[in-house]
Amino acid sequence: MSLEYRAVNWNRQKRIYDVTLGVGTPVLVGLFAATLIATHPNATPETALIRGLGLTALVLLHVILCIGPLCRLSPAFLPLLYNRRHLGVVMATIAAGHGGFALFQFHALGNLNPFVSLLTANTAFASVAGFPFELLGLAALLILLLMAATSHDFWLSVLTPRFWKSLHMLVYVAYALLIGHVALGLMQVETGVIGVAMLGAGAVLVIGLHLAAAIREHRVDRRRTVPPDWIPACRVDEIPEKRARVAMVAGERVAVFRYDGKLSCVSNVCRHQNGPLGEGKIIDGCITCPWHGYQYRPESGVSPPPFDDTVPTYNLAVENGMVLVDPRANPIGTVTIPISDGSSGAAAPDSAPFYVGYFPQADPTLARHTRLAAAGIGLLASSVMVISAVAQPSFADSRFEYGHPRPVTGVIRAHPYPVLDVTQGGTVTRYLLAAAGKHGATVAAAPYDGRAASVLGSLIQRGNATMLEVAEISPADSGGAAPSRLPQTSLGRYTLTGEIVDAKCWLGVMNPGEGKTHLDCAVRCISGGLPPMLVIRDSSGAERHLLLTDPDGAPIGRSLLPAVGRPVSVTGSVVQEGSLLFLRTEASGLKLLPQ
Questions:
Q1: Cβ(522)–Cβ(502) under 8 Å?
Q2: How much is the pTM?
């Protein structure tokens, strides 16, 4: 406790806790990323970082939600509870990192504000399989950030304990939103049963611990009925020295303390954060809450000066060794004279460990238990990170030579989508062209249409398909130019089933560059002028891709955006031009398939 508001009341234990937390969380992120790269060499660092941050935040949230019921079941977790708000702030920060990197990766560098893109790119709210799961994560993140911003006791005082506690109970709403966010993401990326099973196991653990703690507390509550007169709470000899027994009196929990041959009774609810005073201990003549060390005088329920927190007191009597409690609480601040415990024998010894974070040293037994608990949590969290990384779906064999542009000389064809034709030994290699970010290269390529040019660009490749992200275009000699125009061959009219993607990400800029998890990014890329492609797979899993145009062979525009990233059938005419296949269709030729 402190007489003034400070960011952190540092002591040795809190430093150890925060150093462990500060080192452990980056280790978890790094462990996931390193395992993912080692087991999936084609995964990109961006994907490893985004997923590693998200999984670390989710693991920490499970730990946070489990600490409360674990403390009801064992005092070994009290040191973790005392510092839980530090863990919550770290968890919210990591979650914000996950959300920020994902927002930049999938929505920035496009033709729309990233936040507007996040809210509008996917509007399939009526579809479970296609639901915009990102919005669930956004809602959860806002709750977590609000809780982190109001975690200091300054806000608890300003908002009042009741409102503050209600606000921070929204963590369960955030948890439910995150379960939906992750579950839908796993389902939409089709990763198999391991991820879903681990998510379900985490939810079962959280719910199970809360139920176990609730059952334990319910046993205390149902010990007593609500008679009209004074209520038997417990026997005197059941109360250890400087400790309490909790009883249910007139629908309220009270704590009967025994100390120095006397008995006093107060409400069991701490005014700070509703902590269980009955599990506390009398230290320096004051009832000390086990959660955060708030103190109250047992005879009046008033905190020692200069604090003014107050809990109600109750009148007591002892008959035949039984403690009786008047169910009518005294007015707040009433001094209630302690009564004799009526026993000439010594009270039962206090053998239960007790922890308050502002004490210089913790109980050795409790400290040992806490270290074991922390080690167990760390081992379990590390196992989750490794298993989750190994269980990630396979990544396509693609590459993006970001930061290493190369000069390539050929002839530019600006329509329907910019292409650089490079002739070597009578063979024409065709490079699709893209601008930086989520933009097409039509504007940059148009002045060079049909002309020889040198393109300085970064190679993007998947299989035999190639693209260049253009950094600069300059005129070149026409000696190595390709023919004026490659012949077009009509291959007939077909109805093809597959997925519409943007050419740039699918070819290698992002990995994965397809599926519903990439849907928002594909919408931005195609809206920005990047070529849309229909990716189809035959029975053996081999992939073919066709560039989509309108029936006249011009860019198809945005009419296909509602079908991006989803199973779709497209009817149109297939035209081959060199190594590129074009599918000429119109909006009426697109049909969404059941997901």
A1: yes
A2: 0.86
